[in-house]
Amino acid sequence: IVAIVLAFICFILLATFPGWHEETDERGSERDVKPFPSRPVSQVALALIFVASVFVLVSVLWQHTASVAASTIAQDLGNGSVKSGVGTTAMILGWFGFALFIIVTIGLLVMILSISLLDRLTDD
Fold first, then answer.
1. What's this model's pTM, rounded to 2 decimal places?
2. What is the pLDDT of residue 124?
3. 39-77 and 2-15 are packed helices; what angle lies between their axes, rounded to 10 degrees?
4. What is the dihedral of CA 19, 20, 22, 23, to 10 degrees?
């Protein structure tokens, strides 16, 4: 639940990024401009989604371990009359959620690094 809350806060922070707007240059022609997002907001969003990713990783690992343990215990207590297994769909859903969080984390990291690189290149 904490990971979902952190991801939602990150989503709200990402919604504050500036959008496209028109500017008039010195010759009087209009052009579309999209300014860079705020660096502190981007870094806070990255930190939040990274912490959320760690929480999701820990929860998925515990879920995986608990389901395998429960399956084994059910088979052992049944003395062979009970056959149980770990649901593949449940495992895929858990790891898919973690993969999505990692994709968002990597995307934000690439965005922050590319904006800082562009900023350094255009300062000269």
1. 0.79
2. 62
3. 160
4. 70
